[in-house]
Design a protein that fits this description.
Layout (H helix, E strand, L loop, with lengths): L4 H12 L9 E14 L4 E2 L3 E2 L3 E19 L6 E6 L2 E2 L1 H14 L9 E9 L9 H21 L5 H12 L3 H4 L4 E4 L13 E3 L12 E5 L10 H6 L7 H21 L2 H20 L10 H17 L3 E5 L5 E5 L4 H12 L8 E5 L4
Parallel strand pairs: 5-7
Antiparallel strand pairs: 1-4, 2-3, 4-7, 4-8, 5-6, 8-9, 10-12, 10-13, 11-12
Bound molecules: (3R)-3-hydroxy-3-methyl-5-(phosphonooxy)pentanoic acid.
Length: 360
């Protein structure tokens, strides 16, 4: 397995273009959606390499928009200011300074720039939607676009953006691409890599391209467990090896279901992934209960609804209590009616987000 192919490539390319020469402030703006994992990435090594391959749907409406104003700095030193919703955010700014330390080797031109980074999200902060995925993906797209603007090159922007986004937040590398996206080395997909994501839309049956993701907000409070602390729980988890094996096996079945348009098998696999993630959390040291009582009530209601109607839909969870319901356009009205009449009452202030897989 070669985990350093892209690292070496971007390191070498970066060194050739380090001298910045432009007089005024320049500007770049990029948007990137969040994504929901079908096969979960949980456990990593070294510089954000995944212990197992993962697959996700990139969303449409839940996105981060980032604008960077940049100019050569007077003292030839790197500096940045970060604003979220027009307010300076020093906490995230500190995280970004560390992140830029890490990625400057691939963008040596940044060393003499002064950046003002401004971001906003279209979804409520801490709504249980992975904001770090869309944030780092939008930022990485901005940085690669800046490189293009300054050096007028024709490099593949998405692949480098995926590589750079991964270093900020693993799952962010998947948000760079639309539709169905794979990240992580697997023998099942040629060209798959631990360093960058890859869109696998070509092998996906049209039914999945009509999929919605309705996100039931059960508890919008900030996560009890950050993802980086969560991944660390896998270092000496008793079930770690079994989990990585399971994820690879689930991936194989999911790829088959995605290409055959088998919605039943799709649901079985992604629900197994969601439950397994929480099983791992419960059995970690220390153990974490990230589910809310209402999460369990809703899951049971969804299972009964499926039994009564025979509708094909699936639910999944991130490392939190909120539920994503995934279903095709064929049953949209019925699912929305069910949410309105039976599930909404268990959501915080009746809130849910109506999202959709991004167009390919
Ligand atoms: O990318 P991170 O470090 O925020 O980890 C993401 C972890 C999960 O959301 C639980 C799973 C995934 O694959 O997105």
């Amino acid at each position: 397995m070669n985990d350093f192919l892209f690292h070496n490539k971007y390191l070498e390319e970066g060194q050739k273009i380090s001298k910045v020469d432009f007089p005024d402030t320049m500007e770049v703006e990029c948007k990137s959606p969040s994504n929901i994992a079908l096969i979960k990435y949980w456990g990593k090594y070294e510089n954000q390499f995944p212990r197992n391959p993962s697959v996700s749907f990139t969303l449409t409406k839940s996105f981060t928009s980032t604008r960077i104003l940049y100019k050569p700095s007077q003292d030839k030193k790197f500096s940045l200011e970060y604003f979220f919703n027009n307010n300076r955010n020093k906490d995230f700014e500190e995280k970004l300074i560390k992140y830029f330390d890490n990625i400057q080797q691939y963008f040596p031109f940044l060393k003499s720039l002064q950046l003002r980074i401004e971001s906003y999200n279209t979804f409520p902060h801490s709504a249980g939607i992975a904001s770090s995925a869309s944030a780092f993906s939008a930022l990485a797209l901005c940085l690669c676009t800046m490189e293009k603007q300054i050096f007028k090159n024709n490099n593949d922007l998405s692949q480098k953006a995926s590589f750079i986004a991964r270093i900020g937040s693993g799952s962010a590398c998947r948000s760079v691409y639309n539709g169905v996206v794979l990240w992580g080395k697997t023998l099942s997909i040629t060209g798959s890599s631990n360093e960058v994501a890859k869109d696998i839309n070509k092998l996906v049956h049209p039914v999945f391209k009509t999929y919605y993701d309705t996100i039931l907000i059960i508890d919008p409070s900030p996560k009890k467990l950050s993802s980086s602390d969560g991944h660390k729980l896998m270092y000496n988890h008793a079930y770690a090896d079994a989990r990585y094996k399971q994820a690879n096996e689930n991936l194989k079945i999911l790829l088959g279901a995605l290409s055959a348009g088998n919605e039943l098998e799709f649901a079985q696999i992604i629900e197994n992934e969601a439950m397994s993630l929480h099983g791992l959390l419960l059995s970690s040291s220390p153990g974490y209960i990230l589910l809310h009582p209402n999460t369990l009530i809703i899951i049971e209601k969804l299972q009964n609804f499926r039994m009564d109607t025979k509708f094909q839909f699936a639910f999944t969870l991130d490392a939190g209590p909120n539920i994503h319901i995934l279903y095709s356009s064929k049953i949209r009205e019925k699912v929305i009616d069910f949410i309105e009449s039976e599930l909404k009452q268990y959501c915080k202030n009746g809130s849910w987000i109506d999202d959709k897989i991004s167009t390919l």
